Amino acid sequence: MKNLLAVALLSVFFISCNSKNTKLTLKESYSRINFLTIVIENNLWKGQVGDSLRDIIAAPVLGLPQEETQFSVNQVSPAAFSNLFETNRNILFVGVSEKEGYFLKKDVYAAPQLTMTIFGKDENSLNALIQAHKKDIISVFKESDLKNYQKENIKNSYEIKEIKTLNKLGVSIKIPRNFAIVDDTGDFLWLRQDITKGSLNIIAYELPLLEKDSIANNIVKARDTIGKNHIPGPADGSYMVTEAAYTPFTKEVVIDDKPAFETRGTWDVKGDFMAGPFLNYTVLDKKNNRLLVVEGFTYAPSINKRDFMFELEAIIKTLKI
């Protein structure tokens, strides 16, 4: 079994070291977003090492109404790893080898592609390395998927001058044209893409500047005011609010090189039976003496929403002030 793993390792090194010669002939990669192929021996996958990987991958994505894992996974043994799997976009090699370590390679078998390798000298050291890099396993592949989505799916986007609110706010966002403009007042923007059952939505507006320490505590209040004033529900007098039963998750991030707050939670409609997840970015724009808010939310009853929210995140993160 170790020989099979060594062959897989050597192929990664050999191809990556000769990437200048092979880049022109690489196959095009293909897989869904948030999809990960794990190349690992079956006995390791069924044991403690596999349990550690499953704990990491099965951690729920924050802010969704139902639990969904970080990735959809396909496990394959080194013996079964063939041309069929080489075109997968995200590949994680895990195993026991005399050469211990962690490294990343791009475009080894196909392009675009990211491979991550984690090898330990024995199962205990391998498990320790997995725990040491558990955040990387999520963040590195997520970031790669995000950039690939932006490159491949946001080619035909609106110009700033076509959207009154973006023009007035002085910002650009690469919003695909399959999003229709619902409302564009100059102070508030709402775009919607209809899907088979439901919709994806993006809104944008600005708020008065607050001290950084006060921002997080005011995000829900601000979005509820916006929902009441601008996002009506289907029934008379109904409107979107933050769902009170679940506390949103907020953390500090950086958007367009500016401090910002990312808030993930769920919304519902006051006075009606509609709900879904939202992703809110509140950006501290001190130069323009304001808070800039861009949010995505999804209405997709009875189906998984992880990938829809990931698409909205990819679009919003093209924001430039």
Overview of this structure, please?
The protein has 321 residues and is α/β, with parallel strands linked by helices. The chain has two domains: 2-153, Chitobiase, domain 2, CATH 3.30.379; 160-316, 3-Layer(aba) Sandwich (Protein Transport Mog1p, Chain A), CATH 3.40.1000. It is 32% helix and 32% strand. The protein contains ten helices and 15 strands. Strands 8, 9, 10, 11, 12, 13, 14 and 15 form an eight-stranded antiparallel beta sheet that branches. A five-stranded mixed beta sheet has the order 3-2-4-7-5, sandwiched between helices. Strands 1-6 form a two-stranded parallel ribbon. The radius of gyration is 22 Å and the shape is elongated. The model is unreliable at 13-23 (pLDDT under 50).
Envelope shape:
elongated
Oligomer: single chain
Question: What is the share of helical residues?
Answer: 25-40%
Q: What is the highest CATH level, the class of the largest domain? A: Alpha Beta
What is the strand tally?
A: 15
Task: Please summarize what this structure is.
By secondary structure, the chain is of the alpha/beta class. It is built from ten helices and 15 strands.
Q: How would you describe this structure in keywords?
A:
single chain; 321 residues; alpha/beta; Chitobiase, domain 2; Protein Transport Mog1p, Chain A; 2 domains; 8-stranded antiparallel β-sheet; 5-stranded mixed β-sheet; 10 helices
